[in-house]
Structures are given as C-alpha cells and as structure tokens.
C-alpha cells in the first residue's frame, strides 16, 4: 500500500474517531480522499474533528454523536447515517473502553462487553445492507494482542460472578476476533470482508482514563519513554489503515492483522462452537434475530 492509493469516492465510518487511534485513522482516510464520518460522545470535539477532516478530503466529513453504551443510541446512529448515505465502504469498529470498576449500561449489560463487543455487533448489523450495497466493503474491528490472554466463560461473560477490569477488557477483545471470524464466514458469498486488528501497544491514547490510578501512572510513564515495545499514534494506526484500505487485502477476509501483518490469533479465538454461541448470545442481548448476515 502506498500513501497515494486514492480512496476518493469511498465512504468510511469510524467509531471512536474523535481521539486516539480512531482519529488518526480517520485523518489518514480523509487525506487519501475518502468521505469520512466519525462517531464520538463529545459534540465540540466531534465538530472540531469533522472540520479538520473537511480540509483534508475530496469528499464529505461528518460527525455523529452517539453513546455506544446505549443500544438505542447505536440504532439512532445507524438511522442517521442511512439518511445521508446509501452505501458504506469501510466500517471501522474502533471505539473501546477499559474499566477498572464494573459498571452496567442502561440496557443492563456490563459496560466493557457492551461498548467493546455488543456495539460493533449491533452497528454492523444495523448497517449491513449499506455495506452489501458497496462494490467491495470492509468491516474492521479493533481487537488487541491481549485477546490471547482471554478465555470466554459463558457463565461469567459480563463479570457477574466476579469482575476484573483487565479480564473484562481482554475478553471483549477476544469477542472482537470471534465476531470477525463468524461475520467473515457468514458474508463469504458477498463482497464484504471482515478483519480484526491489533494496533500494538500505544500508551499515549485516552484508553486508560477509567483504569486504576496505578495503571494510569504506568501507562503515562510508558507513553513518555522511548521503549521498544511501545508505539506512537501514527505507527499504531497503520494496522487499522492497512485493514481499511490496503488493495492487497481487498479479497482477504476473516483474518487477524497484528502489527500490520496477517497473524494467527489465539487458539481460543479459533473455537468455532464458541464463536457461534457468542453470536447467538449477542443477538439475544441486542434483540435481533441471530440469523443475520447469511
Ligand atoms: N492504545 C492501545 O495500546 C491499544 C492496544 C490495543 C487495542 N486498542 C484498541 O484501540 C481502540 C482505540 O483505543 P485508543 O487506544 O485510541 O483509546 P482512546 O483514545 O480512548 O479512544 C477510544 C475511543 O472510543 C470512544 N468511546 C469509548 N466509549 C464510548 C462510548 N460509550 N460511546 C462512544 N464512543 C466511545 C472514545 O470516544 P469519546 O471521545 O466519546 O470518549 C474514544 O474516541 C480501542 O478499541 C482499544 O481497545 C488500543
């Protein structure tokens, strides 16, 4: 992929696109000419981001305000997007959270699971017809290398029997890989691909804002020191951008991209029974039929 590969005429929607890796990804897609819509909770930051994107792209730049912890808000976002667009070429499910304490959303779901996994699931469901309407579309879901440390305990999927922030986060990132693989299989006969992404360790983002004080201090120190295992925003976003736009990956689906390369995801993430069960459980939690994307 070269920085000159034009995305003019393509439409991208990036959640968490007003800060961190999502904002960097949105800027690069706009620089290449794509119409870019970003999703975030803060109107001021969102409108500032959209104004900046407008100066970069040949297409349109938009901000959608949505709280992805709320299923009603996810549905509203999809409805508002389809009022302005009849097709979507790139959906980047990037928004994510890390919570030291267990909290529950208005829908009664543990927040990490709701924001990191159920929101991508429901948003992709709600926009699938627009993705299918594209001559070739991509669903990029931002996972993490930490998914390799997770197991999926269906009896404690939402930390109801004991919550640990890191366990909940890692599990949600495993769910991102399982979702991607199941989606890719279900969409095999379409021109829509699904890719899970690990950007690497990028300590300078806002991800740790709800982590414990100890973890926030640790990440702050990592962000300041030039350590070999840490990345800056630009470098971290490269893998998202590759998944979203690299022509070499146009027909590649159901893969995990880590540090820019197709890499084997964890053994746990390759459990086909678990991924189908997670799909069905997720459908129940967001109130849709599990028979979608087939
Ligand atoms: N940084 C890393 O080292 C790293 C490593 C592996 C994977 N990741 C993944 O990369 C993705 C981006 O994270 P980041 O590191 O760039 O952190 P970040 O700067 O905190 O970005 C996260 C984004 O998610 C959005 N978000 C969180 N909760 C939301 C909600 N309820 N509704 C709507 N938007 C919400 C935030 O939007 P607001 O502006 O509205 O808060 C923010 O823009 C995440 O999925 C994360 O798990 C990060």
TrEMBL record:
CDD domains: retinol-DH_like_SDR_c_like. Keywords: Oxidoreductase. One of its GO terms (molecular function) is oxidoreductase activity. This is Short-chain dehydrogenase. Belongs to the short-chain dehydrogenases/reductases (SDR) family. Pfam families: adh_short.
């Amino acid at each position: 992929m070269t920085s000159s590969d034009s995305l003019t005429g393509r439409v991208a929607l990036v959640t968490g696109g007003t800060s961190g890796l999502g904002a960097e990804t949105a800027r690069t897609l706009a620089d290449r000419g794509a119409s870019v819509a970003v999703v975030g909770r803060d109107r001021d930051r969102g409108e500032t981001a959209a104004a900046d994107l407008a100066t970069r792209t040949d297409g349109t730049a938009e901000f959608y305000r949505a709280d992805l912890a709320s299923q009603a808000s996810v549905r509203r976002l999809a409805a508002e997007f389809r009022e302005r667009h009849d097709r979507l070429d790139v959906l980047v499910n990037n928004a994510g959270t890390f919570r030291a304490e267990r909290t529950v959303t208005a829908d009664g779901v543990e927040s990490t699971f709701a924001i990191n996994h159920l929101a991508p699931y429901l948003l992709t469901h709600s926009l699938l017809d627009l993705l299918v309407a594209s001559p070739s579309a991509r669903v990029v879901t931002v996972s993490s290398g930490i998914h390799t440390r997770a197991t999926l305990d269906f009896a404690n999927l939402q930390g109801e029997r004991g919550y640990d922030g890191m366990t909940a986060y890692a599990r949600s990132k495993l769910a991102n890989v399982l979702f991607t693989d199941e989606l890719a299989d279900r969409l095999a006969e379409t021109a829509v691909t699904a890719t899970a992404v690990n950007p690497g360790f990028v300590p300078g983002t806002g991800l740790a804002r709800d982590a414990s004080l100890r973890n926030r201090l640790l990440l702050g120190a990592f962000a300041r020191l030039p350590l070999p295992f840490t990345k800056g925003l630009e470098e971290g976003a490269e893998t998202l951008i590759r998944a979203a736009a690299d022509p070499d990956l146009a027909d590649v689906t159901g893969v995990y991209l880590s540090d820019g390369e197709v890499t084997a995801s964890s053994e746990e993430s390759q459990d086909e029974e678990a991924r189908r069960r997670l799909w069905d459980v997720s459908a129940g939690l967001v109130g849709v039929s599990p028979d979608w994307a087939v």
